[in-house]
Amino acid sequence: MKPDVLLPQPYLLFLGDTTEPGYAKTAFGLRDWAGERCVGEYACGATVSTGLPFMTPAEARAAGANALVIGVANSGGFIPPSWLAALVEAMEAGLDIISGMHARLRDFDVLRETADRLGRRLIDVRQPPVGIPVASGRPRQGKRLLTLGTDCALGKKYTALALTRAFTARGKDATFRATGQTGILIAGGGIPMDAVVADFAAGAAEMLTPDADAEHWDVIEGQGSLFHPAYAGVSLALLHGSQPDVIVVCHEPGRERVLGHPGYAVPGIGETIELALRLGSRTRPNIRCAGVSLNTAKLDGAAAHRLIVAESERLGLPVADPMRGGAAFDRLVDACLA
């Protein structure tokens, strides 16, 4: 299913009162991977910006927008009371509301009553499908790649999307498999792994990546981190259930503390690879790490190049920033497909 069939668009991206860029990853992801569907941004006190034109809901509606998308993915997926007036304003301007939060839009009286009065749609995309089975652990045909991270919000989705695009450009049959709300909004389908009951999470990963042609690649968006004090369970279920042949580890240089959990240090790339291979081998004995994806957005080009070269030599693996592309990324793609 395609996003233009499932969801009203174009979108006005809502940033709420967000001050942490990592929590605005839904807005950034839609800007970067579905920019043709985004007319502008709106906020109620946010210090983060996508760089798109700031528009009121009425201005966005006049510009052709059909929905406001909550572009925030905060810890816990909650909708604070401070956002409600802005969401009501959007509906009064003629926009439907699309949310990827854990909180359900219709659970808020003012949103439900306004939507019913005006005939607006309240659309929650963080809804797992019915009938998810308990994981079987049964080997499946086809090839699978999973992106894993040293932390949250540092490039797992972008890396999976970039690799899917690169595989396709090389003539490979490849599908991006979304596991979070932003990826689902981009791809038009997927399973929100963090909304699945824990006992069924690995089964959801199996359901997302079924048997396929032997040469088909499922490129799976990773979630969380195996070292994360809150979300490691989601990461492990995804690793066991997706049974990846290949992993790519994602890391943001310079990030020292876990996002939202400053009492915990970000693990090293090497120990992340070691743990992922050890745990992943339980359901995919021949699992291997093809390389590392670095998010070098905070570095200039020369500094990023030096770091990529140094880390590749240190780790003995291809290292690249997929958003910068170039020869380093080509080597990472080669290693994935080898």
Automatic annotation (TrEMBL):
Where is the D-glutamate N-acetyltransferase-like C-terminal domain positioned along the sequence? 134-327
One Pfam family per UniProt: DUF1611_N
Q: Where would I find the D-glutamate N-acetyltransferase-like N-terminal domain in this sequence?
A: 40-128
**SUPFAM superfamilies to which the protein is assigned, alphabetical:** P-loop containing nucleoside triphosphate hydrolases
Q: What is this protein called?
A: NAD-dependent epimerase/dehydratase family protein
